[in-house]
Design goal:
Length: 681
C-alpha cells in the first residue's frame, strides 16, 4: 500500500551473453512471435543504475551487482566503468543513496529484510580501505532498534549536516534532529507534539510543517523556535490537495502545488505569500489535461527551470531560456523519450540524464551544459534485445456511467491484436497512476504472448480532484473496481481479448483489485495473482504501522472507518475475504513475511478461506522480504512461478526448463496451504 516492486552462483549478476538471451517455449505456435526471451533478461538486477554525480563534478556513484545485491560503486568522471570500485558489500540491495553537499560522503539507507525501519549510514568513499573487507568503513548515523528514519533536508549552508526524522520517542510521530555526518552527533531540533506528517526546511532553517486535520483535510503550518510554535498559513479541505514544493529565493514566499477552490480541478503551481495571503499562479498544464507532475529548480539559486506534466506521455515546459535550449537539444537527440535529469554538479555544468522509452529500460548520459555534448555512461540492461519488445499504447474507454477512463495497452509483438489472452494489471497505491515507459513485468508478459492492460481507474492520481475523489469509498464493489471490469469488457467487445483467457495480476492495491475481481466478478477471470494484496479492509486498517497514524483521518474519508458501525459493514461487503466462497478461478497468492504495510495475515486469511472452500490456491512466502521483492533470486523465482501459473490457466508461452537456481528458490518459497493458519481465529 502507498503511504508512499535475486541469487545463487548459477545466476550471480547475470550479465547474459547472446547465447543465453533466448529460451525454449512450451508453446511457440505463432510463427510471427518474437523469440522467447530468457527470464533473467527482465528480472536480474540491472547491470548499472542510479548514477549520481558528486556536487564537485569529479566523481560518479552508481549501483551495480556485487555480492548478491545492488551495491554502491564509485568512479572518477571520465574514467571507464571497469575502474570503479564497490564501497558497500551488502547481501540485500541498498535502498537509496546520495552525496553530501561537499562531496566528502555518501549517505544511504538500509532496512532489515523489508521491514521499512530504515537506518541512515555514511561512508567516505575516498578513505583508506579496510584490509579485511577491502571497503571504506561506514557508520550508522541512526541506530535505534525498531525506529524508522526519514531524511528531511540536506542544507547547502551546512554541508557537514543533515536533518532527519526519528520516531524513537513515539512510534507514531517523527521528531526532527540535526545530525553531524562526520561525528554522528545528534541534536534535537523539534519535538513532534502537533501530529506533524512532514517537516520542511529552507537551507538549514526549519520553517514549515504539514499535518492532516481531524476531518481529513491538510494544514500547512508555519513553524517557530523548536517546533513547539505552529501557526496555520494555508489549508485545503478533504478532497482537495495542497503541498510545499520549494521555498522562493526571496525567503518569504513559497511554491505550492494546490487545487484549492471550487473553480479548480487540476493541481497547479503557485507562489504563496504567508504574510499577505496573496497567491500567484506560476504554471498549470497548458493542455488542461493533468495535474502538475513536478517542478525542476536550480540547485545554485533555487530559480524555477521547468515544470513537468504526465499526460499520455511526459511533457516538460521550460521556464528559463538557457534551460530551454538544453531541453530542446536533448529532445532533438532523443525524440519520443522520457527524459529525467537525475543529478547535477553544484555549478550545474554537468548533468546525469536518463533517457528511456517503452521498449528501452534506460540509457544514462553525462551531459555537458557548456558544449552541449553527451557522453554515454551506460545502458541499464545492455543485453536486453529491444527489437523484440512490444509497444505500450495509451488508450481510452468508456465506463458504465459514461466516464472516460485512461489506461495503457501493450500487445504482444508480432500478434494481429485479436482474440489474445489478456493479463489485467491494476496499479498499486491506489492513489497513484500508471505511466508510459518501460516496465519489466509488462514486457515479460507481452513476450509470453499476453496482451497487458493497465487501467488508471477512478481514484488514480494525476487527472484532477474530481477523478480522484470519484474513487472515494469505491474499493471492491465500488467504482474503482467497476472501471477495471469495464475496461476488460471493452477489450473483449473490441475483439482484442479472448473472454475465456483473462487473468488479473497486481501488487498492493493491485493485489486487492485482483482478489476483488475474482470474488465480485468471478465470471470474468480465468486466473488471478495477488502480490502483497490486502483481503480484508478492516483488518488492513487495524494493522497499519504506528507512523501512519497522523494521516489516518484522510484514509477514513477515502476508504472507510472500521470504528463506525455502518462503515464497518460496508467495508465488510467490499472485502474479498468475506466473499471468498464466490471465487471460481485458480489463485496464486504471494507475500513478503516482513511487510509492515500489508501484513502477511492479509494473505494467510484468504488462503485459509479458499482452502476450506475447496478452491484452487497456491501460496508463495519470502521470509526475507517486505512490501515487494528486493532479492534478485526471490524476484526471479516468483516471476517464473507466475509464468508457469498463467501458462497453465490462460495458455501463454513459458520458458522450459526453469533455470535450476530459480526453480530451487521457487520451491523454497512455496507454502503447503494445508499448514496455513487463519490469524484471526
Amino acid at each position: 500500500m502507498h503511504a508512499r516492486a535475486y541469487i545463487s552462483a548459477a545466476v550471480l549478476f547475470a550479465v547474459l551473453s547472446a547465447s543465453h538471451a533466448f529460451a525454449t517455449s512450451s508453446d511457440n505456435r505463432d510463427t510471427n512471435a518474437p523469440p522467447l526471451l530468457d527470464i533473467e533478461l527482465f528480472f536480474t538486477d540491472p547491470q548499472y543504475s542510479a548514477a549520481r554525480l558528486a556536487p564537485d563534478g569529479r566523481s560518479i556513484a552508481f549501483q551495480s551487482p556485487h555480492l548478491r545485491a545492488r551495491n554502491i560503486w564509485v568512479k572518477g568522471v571520465g574514467q571507464p566503468f571497469d575502474t570503479a570500485e564497490p564501497v558497500t558489500a551488502y547481501d540485500r540491495s541498498v535502498s537509496g543513496f546520495f552525496w553530501s553537499r561537499d562531496s566528502r560522503y555518501i549517505l544511504y539507507v538500509q532496512d532489515r529484510d523489508g521491514d521499512e525501519n530504515y537506518q541512515v549510514r555514511a561512508l567516505d568513499p575516498f578513505a583508506e580501505r579496510n584490509a579485511e573487507t577491502g571497503l571504506p568503513e561506514s557508520r550508522r548515523l541512526t541506530d535505534t532498534e525498531g525506529a524508522r528514519a526519514i531524511i528531511y533536508h540536506v542544507p547547502r549552508s551546512e554541508p557537514e549536516a543533515i536533518f532527519i526524522g526519528l520516531n524513537d520517542r513515539n512510534p507514531a510521530y517523527h521528531d526532527v534532529y540535526r545530525v553531524n555526518i562526520s561525528t554522528g552527533e545528534k541534536q534535537l531540533v523539534a519535538r513532534n507534539e502537533h501530529g506533524i506528517e512532514s517537516w520542511h526546511f529552507d537551507d538549514g532553517e526549519l520553517r514549515k510543517a504539514i499535518r492532516t486535520t481531524s476531518d481529513g483535510g491538510t494544514e500547512i503550518l508555519g513553524v517557530g523556535g523548536d517546533g513547539g510554535d505552529v501557526t496555520p498559513i494555508y489549508s485545503c479541505d478533504f478532497g482537495e490537495s495542497c503541498g510545499i514544493v520549494r521555498f522562493h529565493p526571496d525567503g518569504e514566499r513559497v511554491y505550492l502545488r494546490t487545487n484549492v477552490g471550487e473553480d479548480r480541478d487540476l493541481t497547479k503551481l503557485v507562489l504563496y505569500d504567508p504574510g499577505t495571503g496573496e497567491e500567484t499562479l506560476v504554471d498549470r498544464d497548458p493542455e488542461g489535461e493533468v495535474d502538475l507532475g513536478s517542478a525542476i529548480f536550480s540547485e545554485e539559486d533555487d530559480s524555477l527551470l521547468a515544470t513537468v506534466y504526465i499526460g499520455d506521455r511526459q511533457r516538460i515546459y521550460a521556464h528559463d531560456d538557457e534551460f530551454a535550449a538544453h531541453l530542446d537539444h536533448l529532445h532533438a537527440e532523443h525524440p519520443e523519450s522520457t527524459l529525467d535529469i537525475t543529478s547535477s554538479s553544484r555549478d550545474e555544468t554537468r548533468w546525469t540524464v536518463s533517457i528511456s522509452r517503452d521498449k528501452d529500460p534506460g540509457t544514462v548520459y553525462l551531459y555537458d551544459t557548456g558544449s552541449g555534448e553527451s557522453e554515454t555512461l551506460y545502458r541499464s540492461r545492455p543485453d536486453l534485445p529491444m527489437e523484440h519488445l512490444a509497444e505500450m499504447q495509451p488508450i481510452r474507454y468508456e465506463a458504465r456511467d459514461g466516464t472516460e477512463v485512461p489506461g495503457y495497452l501493450t500487445l504482444p509483438r508480432g500478434s494481429d491484436g485479436e482474440n489474445l489472452p489478456l493479463v489485467v494489471h491494476p496499479h498499486g497505491g491506489p492513489w497513484m497512476r500508471d505511466t508510459w515507459g518501460y516496465r519489466g513485468g509488462v514486457q515479460f508478459l507481452a513476450n509470453r504472448g499476453y496482451a497487458v492492460f493497465q487501467p488508471n481507474f477512478r481514484g488514480s492520481t494525476g487527472y484532477g480532484k474530481a477523478f480522484l475523489n470519484a474513487g472515494n469509498q469505491g474499493w471492491g464493489t465500488g467504482v474503482m473496481q467497476h472501471d477495471i471490469t469495464d475496461g476488460v469488457k471493452h477489450l473483449i467487445d473490441e475483439g482484442i481479448a479472448d473472454p475465456d483467457r483473462v487473468a488479473i495480476y497486481g501488487a498492493s492495491y493491485g493485489g486487492f483489485a485482483t482478489l476483488a475481481g475474482l470474488a465480485f466478478t468471478p465470471e470474468l477471470y480465468a486466473a488471478g495473482v495477488s502480490v502483497v494484496g490486502p483481503s480484508n479492509i478492516i483488518s488492513l486498517v487495524e494493522s497499519f504501522p504506528a507512523y501512519w497514524a497522523p494521516g489516518l483521518a484522510r484514509w477514513h474519508r477515502r476508504v472507510g472507518d472500521p470504528d463506525d458501525p455502518e462503515e464497518r459493514q460496508r467495508l465488510k461487503e467490499q472485502s474479498p475475504f468475506f466473499s471468498a466462497e464466490r471465487i471460481r478461478a485458480p489463485l496464486m497468492v504471494v507475500h513478503g513475511a516482513n511487510d509492515p504495510r500489508v501484513v502477511q495475515a492479509e494473505s494467510d486469511q484468504i488462503v485459509v478461506a479458499l482452502r476450506e472452500a475447496g478452491h484452487d490456491v497456491e501460496y508463495l512466502i519470502a521470509r526475507d522480504e517486505g512490501h515487494g521483492f528486493v532479492d534478485e533470486t526471490n524476484r526471479l523465482a516468483f516471476m517464473a512461478g507466475m509464468e508457469e501459473f498463467l501458462a497453465r490457466h490462460i495458455g501463454g508461452r513459458h520458458q522450459e526448463p526453469t533455470p535450476g537456481a530459480i526453480a530451487e528458490r521457487l520451491e523454497a518459497l512455496r507454502v503447503d496451504v494445508e499448514s496455513v493458519e487463519d490469524p484471526t481465529r
